[in-house]
Design goal:
Blueprint: H1 14-18, H2 30-46, H3 51-56, H4 59-68, H5 77-83, H6 85-96, H7 104-112, E1 133-134, E2 140-141, H8 144-153, E3 161-165, H9 171-178, E4 182-187, H10 190-203, E5 210-213, E6 226-231, H11 240-244, E7 246-259, E8 262-271, E9 274-283
Parallel strand pairs: 3-4, 3-6, 4-5, 6-7
Antiparallel strand pairs: 1-2, 7-8, 8-9
The structure holds S-adenosyl-L-homocysteine.
The site of S-adenosyl-L-homocysteine (SAH) has 26 residues, from strand 2, helix 9 and strand 4.
């Protein structure tokens, strides 16, 4: 099966055939392999010196070898991650350190979690910008600084357990995990829960982040008490269920506002059974929807 060149001669140059068409991961397509195999056979038939090639590897064997090396089966996160390594360290330097984030554990976690993998591919190049981004189901992934500030205000120590309400894309859960915490995360939207579970546990290997599909305003009674609670959506008040599930000397962060879309970031300290609240300024989160939310 030869194509003709301008002079009407068949094209039999291996170089030309090799250059026909290669898949992005560097393996030739089946068609190219077949052409190469036919070419090798023809060469061997024409030249007695190459006779031996026919016995060492037949066209069928060559095809079989390439078929076995077909497309990669797993998602390669490493090369993609590395593309944005510089953007990520710049984000840490210019958006976090420059604005007063000093907790080394938080800075380290945010310099290793590949934020771009938590948004759609079309948004990869904007994932390290200084702003929140849309995720599925009308929800958002918080601005990097907000994630960092909340993580720093948690004053968490490695090994503590933390309850996150609002898994969303899973980005904050991954950051908390990289900080050395045992993460329990609750999401109320089934579509997000399923998508994020696959990303976190299968693609990124965070198999020990425990994900739940339920109304997070009720907490997770069966795993309480929690050393830390972080709520990634804004409600009209601090849910009583969450207060009761805080460990003694526990800390909770939650955006609270009487009106939707405008809240104050509240830090709650629990001491000997009573709770004290501290205001950390105005913020904007999506709605905390549930029996003790909106
Ligand atoms: N931490 C997330 C932020 C997601 S936005 C991230 O890093 O991407 C807030 C999320 O809270 C949304 O996914 C929304 O569905 C969820 N949410 C709102 N009310 C909730 C509730 N009562 N229980 C659990 N999740 C809730």
């Amino acid at each position: 099966m030869h194509t003709k060149n301008k002079t009407g001669q068949p094209k039999t140059s291996a170089k030309k055939i090799e250059g026909l068409c290669y898949e992005p991961w560097g393996l030739p397509t089946e068609r190219v392999v077949r052409l190469q195999a036919q070419f090798a056979q023809k060469e061997a038939e024409q030249s007695p010196a190459r006779e031996i090639i026919r016995h060492i590897i037949t066209p069928a064997e060559l095809l079989h070898t390439y078929k076995k090396r077909a497309a990669p089966r797993t998602v390669h996160t490493k090369p993609q991650t590395d593309i944005y390594k510089y953007s990520r360290s710049r984000m840490v330097r210019e958006q976090l350190e420059a604005r007063g984030i000093t907790d080394q554990n938080v800075l380290h976690a945010m310099s290793v979690v590949p934020r771009h993998l938590f948004v759609s591919e079309a948004l990869h190049s904007t994932a390290y910008d200084d702003r929140p981004l849309p995720i599925a189901c009308g929800q958002t992934i918080s601005q990097p600084y907000t994630v960092a500030l909340m993580c720093q205000l948690l004053m968490a120590e490695k090994g503590m357990n933390v309850l996150e309400i609002g898994t969303g894309s899973g980005y904050q859960a991954a950051v908390l995990r990289e900080m050395g915490l045992k993460v329990f995360s609750v999401e109320r939207i089934a579509q997000l829960y399923t998508k994020t579970k696959t990303l976190l546990t299968k693609t990124l290997g965070y198999a020990d982040i425990l994900l739940f599909l339920s109304d997070g305003t009720l907490g997770l009674e069966q795993f309480a008490p929690f050393d830390r609670i972080i709520v990634a959506a804004g409600g009209p008040s601090v849910p009583e269920a969450l207060k009761s599930q805080m460990a003694d000397k526990g800390i909770m962060l939650i955006p609270v506002g009487r009106e939707k879309m405008t809240q104050n970031l509240i830090r709650v300290f629990k001491n000997n059974g009573s709770c004290k609240e501290e205001n950390h300024g105005a913020t904007t989160f999506v709605d905390l929807v549930g029996s003790q939310g909106w």
